[in-house]
Amino acid sequence: MFSLCRLLTILLVVFRYRLDELVLSSIRHPWASRLLRIARLGRKPKLPRGVRLRLALESLGPIFVKFGQVLSTRRDLIPLDIAEQLAMLQDRVPPFPSEVAEATILKALGASPYELFQKFDREPIASASIAQVHFAELHNGREVAVKVLRPGMREVIHKDLRLMRVLAVFMERLGPDARRLKPREVVAEFDKYLNDELDLIREASNCSQLRRNFTKDAERTQLLMVPEVHWDYCASTVFTMDRMKGIPVNQIDRLRAANVDLKDLARKGVEIFFTQVFTDGFFHADMHPGNIYVSDAPESLGRYIALDFGIVGSLSEFDKNYLAQNFLAFFRRDYRRVAQLHIESGWVPPETREEELEGSVRAVCEPYFDRPLSEISLGQVLLRLFQTSRRFNVEIQPQLVLLQKTLLNVEGMGRDLDPELDLWDTAKPYLEKWMYQRIGPSGFYSRLKQEAGQWAQIMPQLPRLVYSSLNRPDTGQALNQELKLLRQSQQQANRLLSVLCAVLAVAVGVAIWALVGR
């Protein structure tokens, strides 16, 4: 009954915001055109399609808002105007009662928040679709932030996800254009993100990993501050970390008033991103202004502060190498190398003609070089490369789409701080240095050290392994004999099958002749 009522509600919202027109207009079929004329009744929607979709998702509630936020990251699949509107979706969810938060903490940690903490603020400081945050103070006087999962979320999410799967199957049957959007895969990706965010232990571990990465040396510590996790006060529904104080990165006037060097801050943001991606292969993938602050404390003035670690991205060594070489080849306008990288990666079919792919990449990338360097978007370049790759039947990896979305966020924040920010000038030396460290003498020595332990175990065994291999009886002749016998058996079976088919054909012919003769 709930599913039926929910489905009716969704259909009402669809017709209210004329999303039927959005679906029908994207289907290239005569019947779709006729249905579209009937649905419009001579009137066209007043608002753009992206705005209507955003308003519809907001009216359907927090789960659909979250779905729109995830969908906005798939700019390789959806039109740009829709992606930009979906990126504007915000969680506008009233907080749940403080008594419920206290009961959740009691159940998860075995004691009430007033026993666990010296001080606990009953009123939440922030509330979103998945959780809300309360400030508290440990008994040692340390200030912390306690994130509490919204109760009953799993049941609500699973019910809405069931409906989304049904709608996704329906969309796929509308035609090839709808199938190109891969609705079932997008819903499955959304399911994974939501389940990850519903486990606050996972978020706490992401936070801990990122903090460890940026406390390796003094140089990194000056770039980014990550709160420390207090594991004794964490569970799957509760996440306790240091309270971080600062200014949201998009509040430019407050940053200026605090004497923060905005140009240096913009460059540091780009450096943080490339450090996470190419050095660590582990990056904060939700770097919008609401999750990034800047410290205004005298001892850490101008250092970034990261918050909300529900969505992170991971890259393999293969991914990092592919991205770095693609960027460098693009910087040098070496489009043949970009095409070769796509083929070598195995992301395009091996029969793809290198010069054809090179021409497509050139058509995408060359127009960017007519612009001032400060206006060129690396995120848009990566997006266009993905779009070009799709023409050659490439399945873009989800982690690279997540990275492209994060890069767009970083670029947006950087240029808000410094409109003249030249990402090329900032990124190119870093990428060249990284490539040198990978393929130069220092990279070779580093990898040799990494493999030394494994080689130390294997090398003493080599003489014994070689001796055993040389003394092993030669089974090649016996194997050849077995293969020969198997081939003869197969040939005999084929001959027998041919005879049986011939007999059966004769029998069928005789039966038909007898019937006709009667």
UniProtKB/TrEMBL annotation:
Residues 103-486 form the Protein kinase domain. It comes from Alcaligenes pakistanensis. The keyword Membrane applies. Keywords: ATP-binding, Cell inner membrane, Cell membrane, Kinase, Membrane, Nucleotide-binding, Transferase, Transmembrane, Transmembrane helix, Ubiquinone biosynthesis. Belongs to the protein kinase superfamily. ADCK protein kinase family. The keyword Transmembrane helix applies. It comes from the Bacteria. GO terms for molecular function: ATP binding; protein kinase activity. This is Protein kinase domain-containing protein. Pathway: Cofactor biosynthesis; ubiquinone biosynthesis [regulation]. GO terms for biological process: ubiquinone biosynthetic process. The chain crosses the membrane at residues 496-516.
